[in-house]
Amino acid sequence: MKLRFRDSMNWLHTWSCVVLGCLLFAVFLTGTLAYFQYEITHWMQPEVEQIQHKDKAINQAQAYLNTHTENAPRWTIVPPNERFSPIVAYWRDKNTTGRFSVARLDEQGNEINSRATRGGEFLYRFHFDLHYMPVFYARWLVGIAAMLMLVGIITGIVVHKKIFKDFFTLQFNKGAKSWLNSHTVCSVLALPFHIMITYTGIVTLMLMYFSWAMNMGDGIDVASSRHLAIKPQL
């Protein structure tokens, strides 16, 4: 017997959400906690003191870089704010091709010796780099998971043809039906957020996912060209 369109959408909705549901839960959990990454880092590194005089601290950071980075063609200073207390300086030595060197400085321009933890930065990076695998493959995996979630959202709307009517139906002590009602209520309530957070997550890395389209449109090899995006390590 031939499946109806809604039946096929029901199958697609179920399996697209189940396959990578655990991964998406980890991405959403760490992404939510990453909103408080600076506060988490400060909690895990209480020895880092809040800088009171920003201008003085920036001048001291410049003096530090002039002294310690003679071979660096370029360096960057990230000033402190009310949430991010130390000054962060990073640079790359022109004689090396390794990672950027990073130094966290106090108000006097001295390096801060804090306990070895990345704090909230670990959570921020984990939610799209996954930490335990190469960054390139991790971002592709997260992107595929986000795409499947978008498919799950759209097919879920198609499957529930009475989605807004069912939103006001919540039956208790009905076993599986109660769980299904709760699922519908929660999904409809957060539907705009789910759509936007998934779509914008994919768009954020679209140059990586659709580099072939850029190559065809502009004749530029995006995959082999250098794109620099740096965030200081906490």
UniProtKB/TrEMBL annotation:
Superkingdom, natural source: Bacteria
Transmembrane segments: 12-36, 137-159, 180-210
InterPro entries for this protein: PepSY-ass_TM
Claim: Nucleotidyltransferase is one of the keywords in the record: no
Keyword entries, A-Z: Membrane, Transmembrane, Transmembrane helix
Keyword check for Membrane: yes
Record PANTHER family: IRON-REGULATED INNER MEMBRANE PROTEIN-RELATED (PTHR34219), PEPSY DOMAIN-CONTAINING PROTEIN (PTHR34219:SF4)
Protein's recorded name: PepSY-associated TM helix domain-containing protein
